[in-house]
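SEQUENCE-TO-STRUCTURE ENTRY
===========================
Question of interest: how does this chain fold, as expressed in backbone structure tokens?
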Amino acid sequence: MINRFTLVLVSLLGGLLFLVFPTKNRSSDPEYDRTVCAGPPLKSVEARNDALEKGYLIDRKYDCIDKNSFDEINRRAAEWQAAQKEAQLAAPDAPAAEAELILGEARKGFQTAVSLPGSGSPPLPQPPAGLFVRTDYRSAQNLLLAAYVTPDPKDGDRHPAIIWLTGGDTNSLGDFWRAGPEFNDQSARAYRDAGLVVMFPTLRGGNTNAGGKEYFLGEVDDVLAAADHLARLPYVDPNQIYLGGHSTGGTLALLTAETSGRFGAVFAFGPVAAADRYSSSQLPVHFRQHGELELKLRSPIHWLSGISTPTYVIEGRNAPGNFSDFEEICRGSRNPLLHCIPVEGSDHFSVLARVSRVIAARLAVRAGGIEFALRPDDFAISSENTAVAPPADAPVAEYSPRASSAAKQARRVVAAADESTTMRAVDPAIEKAVIGVMGIEALVQQTQTFCLRTLPTSYAKYSTAENWQQRNAAVIAQQRRVLSQAFDASQRQALEATVQATVQRQMAPVVDAPMASRIKWCDQSSDEINNGSVDLRNKQNLVSPLMNYRPEPS
């Protein structure tokens, strides 16, 4: 089975990979413009690679280091050096200062000037009743805020529970119950599958809630109020309530741990050290305009000494992610209750499913008296936790410097999928569509991961996956429904593992290419993903079977 659909997937994905080498005739270079260039034209491949590896942009007209990028990178380096020097001068007083930094105390009586209305927030979601039920809670400000919790199993027992804070707009919820692929599953389903009660709260200003968003300040109070509500449910063990969150949710979880010892343990995936590390689209507030304390109270790096419950900060080592913030947090604490878990072979998104399965299983057995523990070596790379590779004789697309662009090859990709053979009693068109959508989504995510690792200074340009997923959300959601209904568990697992392994094999020629060629590939790939050239709406022979799919009556 794996051999057959690997061939299909290679055919599907091979056409999406393109690599364009620079072919500029350097003999025709005009004299360089000193207002544009930071120095003369670059005369060799080695010089261009060296400039790119330092983060500089190259002006295509003059083939020189772009002056603006040169000035910006050197300005940042000077600021960093000045900050390091200042920190060294302050180091002798650091232990005494840290002893005073208790977030719960610092927050008392503070009135924030930041409270933005939740305009544009989505309506409240409607998850399947068998998975989650509505359970509203009262905040400390007497706001009635919506939340969703797994239903009472009606077994007469009290169960361990976890509150999960989502990434992105943490105050609001979307289709939080929908499981994603292994490399980006933000549904926290591992905890539900392990038998824990799972609560997803909305926070002030989120969805249709009253109140304004305070971005990591008042939301801490909301999380604590949600925990009090959860503890009162008759099927929850009030002594075994945990807190977890991812990305912005991880930052809020860490701030909550620094404020209160309310939880049995806290799991913060991919937090930042300071709130102003987020972009203006994620956090539309210039805190420094309101005073230094506004930012400081929202930045976990200042309050690590106040953590009074076991707290795990977790991040994948691979880009994209917040690993530099992870290192800063771990270096900045001497608190024995703060545990740092760097995860080899994972990024900011793939770390979630991998680590959550371990946490969930251990929390479930902790209810039977087994002590909880989580260590970095639990996630060392081994043959047991790497993706299943396709067969050694599976064909791999040849690397070609003249490969055509993603937009052109995408049309060939769909046509090439007709060699698909069915599993179980699945319609070949359905199987082709499921594999195709899964593979293209995986390739978009892998492109972002690879390009951000190649040139982190182009974060804005290369962060393409989230917008692509938003534009294609309806098709992706339907593909996942079809995957769950038309394929059994072992087939789904085999499909997901083989898609990932095959994409990695297809990316290998690009990964091994020279630096300048990788940059060129990333520029063109990101442009085509951003402009919709590889959107699923352009592939109706994948979309139509999925949208017209009706499960067979049982």
